[in-house]
Amino acid sequence: MDNLLQLWGATGLAHIQPGQAVMIAIGLVLLFLAIRKGFEPLLLVPIGFGGILANIPGGGLAWSAAEAALHSGDPAVLADIARVLGADAAHAGGLFKALAEAPPMLLHEATMVARGAGFSDGMLHVFYSVAIASGVAPLVIFMGVGAMTDFGPLLANPRTLFLGAAAQFGIFATVLGAVGLSTLGLMDFSLADAAAIGIIGGADGPTAIYVSSVLAPDLLGPIAVAAYSYMALVPLIQPPIMRALTSEAERRIEMTQLRVVSRREKIVFPLLLLILVALLLPAAAPLLGMFCFGNLMRESGVVGRLSETAQNALINITTIFLGLSVGSKLVADKFLDLNTLGILGLGVVAFAIGTASGILIAKLMNRFSTTPVNPLIGSAGVSAVPMAARVSNKVGLEANPHNYLLMHAMGPNVAGVVGSAVAAGVMISLVGG
Description:
By secondary structure, this protein is mainly α. The protein has two domains: 13-126, no CATH class; 132-431, no CATH class. Helices cover 72% and strands 0% of the residues. The chain contains 25 helices and no strands. The chain has helices at residues 2-9, 18-35, 41-54, 65-72, 75-85, 92-101, 104-116, 123-133, 136-148, 152-156, 160-166, 169-183, 191-198, 205-215, 220-232, 234-245, 248-251, 263-280, 285-300, 304-311, 313-327, 332-335, 338-367, 387-399, 406-431. The longest helix has 30 residues, at 338-367. The protein is elongated, with a radius of gyration of 24 Å.
């Protein structure tokens, strides 16, 4: 009997907490949505699986060496770490809080103490440190996205750039909303948290991850899940807003054929875009620089192998580790709180405002232009490429079977990618110090 009890005590089931069970269930739901419903499977499969791994009782796969040492409960190790952090070793909760808020130098010392005692970083924590904490994975993905992007529709109709810019209103409106909720005492978000949450409105997963890793690493899990969930739900969220803000006659507007864009224009544009934006807003240079570099590889025509690798193998490998790294942040004590619900709510508001802003600006443009644009393409200003453009095309075809808006909608869609990178740079410059 003693052996059986000892065996039971060594299992994860004996130590599972209700929060861990809930998070494992959430991980399974994400896998279900990805596999059965087809919601962003490339990201939700590794995120969901990483979330399950992170909540295995006693596994410690998402713990740093210092966190593993604190969870061990070894009095001698706790005392050493408490001395480094200037905290009370008798209160475990206080130690965890002190570790989470420790400046880099003290965190490094605590980690060295833990490693000296035989503790090591968990697998998922290593993935997170390499892929996200360093900022590498989102930048590599942006390079791959750039290599897959055609600026032709934007260059053929430059005024659609304003539609992509308009869709970023959702980002800044949500920042104000998050700050307002905190001021009223309904939520507990700092200005940096609010800025990271607002980026969800751009419907750009890599940008949301990059900004949250810089400004609000503790909110990375819920922000990433919200961003990719709303990207997957574009076909459900956008059409009601589009129909509510446009008339039947507006949805039937047919747009003129786009002109052919020369190869020279496509080569010069990413270089010009990077130089102009980077000189004005250096904080946007990492994201926009990798995006423009990927696009230059595509359009130059002389590095086909590099472009093909960036579009396929490299972005796919990076996506695997990015998803698992995000999943490592779906631990019960960091995800299951009121702030997570606030993030999910503010995220959908940001997305809705971005969609509506693009449509309204398109309608405003029609008042001052002799060549009308179909307001439906304004909703494609969010940077969910190419889902938002496809939704614009679908709703347009419902109103007019001869109205093919896909290529027209790709202009604001691509502009939205650029706009979200610029918005990210603004947030990091203003809030990140």
